[in-house]
UniProtKB/TrEMBL annotation:
The keyword NADP does not apply. This is peptidylprolyl isomerase. It comes from Edolisoma coerulescens. The gene is Fkbp7. It comes from the Eukaryota. Gene3D superfamilies: 3.10.50.40, EF-hand (1.10.238.10). GO terms for cellular component: endoplasmic reticulum. SUPFAM superfamilies: EF-hand, FKBP-like.
């Protein structure tokens, strides 16, 4: 179930690549500094909680249009059998303008947002996505769910059994066993050791044999 997403093994281990943001716009230009995302709220639920923040796992549908002629270049409802998209907010999985546009948004909310080229695909455009150079984009977004992200404080604390704010090899080994038991898939006995080694290779940056709260929490929540 998606409620287990924060603890999900695949999300703990793998870099997230649910939505690509190719041809990232150049930062630091005068145009980027002057440009802003325009947000129009089309529908706001009476009970507007929780509000999305950086690192949250969002589930949304959205349509993308070119501002120049109104033509539609993207529709999430025609992708992936019509399932809404899951992605982590504020970490560059989508274009920067969408990361900005979907902050402080609650489940059930609908927005129409206008994103300048400097916060989208810039001077290069994105030919594969039928987006010309210097294109201003309009997205109509409907947000369905706001969940704790895969590198959340809650997920860290669950693995950190002794509460010392760092994850030992034993703690992560135990976590892997629990995850393997939960999903019930048959694996080769060596898979556990290989995955454990890979976790430390990718996350233990100072090579001290522990994964600290800072090393684990790639999305830099304020709480850790």
């Amino acid at each position: 179930p998606w409620s287990d997403m924060g603890r999900g093994l695949s999300l703990l281990l793998l870099p997230l690549a649910l939505l690509a943001a190719p041809a990232r716009a150049e930062d630091g230009t005068a145009a980027a500094a002057a440009a802003e995302v325009q947000i129009e709220v089309l529908h706001l639920p009476e009970a507007c909680s929780p509000k999305s923040k950086k690192g949250d796992l969002l589930n949304a549908h959205y349509d993308g249009f070119l501002a120049s002629d109104g033509s539609k270049f993207y529709c999430s409802r025609t992708q992936n059998e019509g399932h809404p998209k899951w992605f982590v907010l504020g970490v560059g999985q989508v274009i920067k303008g969408l990361d900005i546009a979907m902050m402080n948004m609650c489940p059930g909310e609908k927005r129409k947002v206008t994103i300048p080229p400097s916060l989208a695909y810039g001077q290069q455009g994105y030919a594969q996505g039928k987006i010309p150079p210097n294109a201003t984009l309009i997205f109509e977004i409907e947000l369905y769910a706001v969940n704790k992200g895969p590198r959340s404080v809650e997920a860290f604390n669950q693995i950190d059994k002794d509460g010392d704010k760092k994850l030992s090899e034993l703690e992560i080994s135990q976590y892997l066993k629990e995850e393997f038991a939960r999903d019930g898939k048959k694996r080769h006995p060596s898979a556990h050791d290989e995955i454990l080694a890979d976790i430390f290779k990718k996350n233990d940056h100072d090579r001290d044999g522990f994964i600290s709260a800072k090393e684990y929490n790639v999305y830099q929540h304020d709480e850790l």
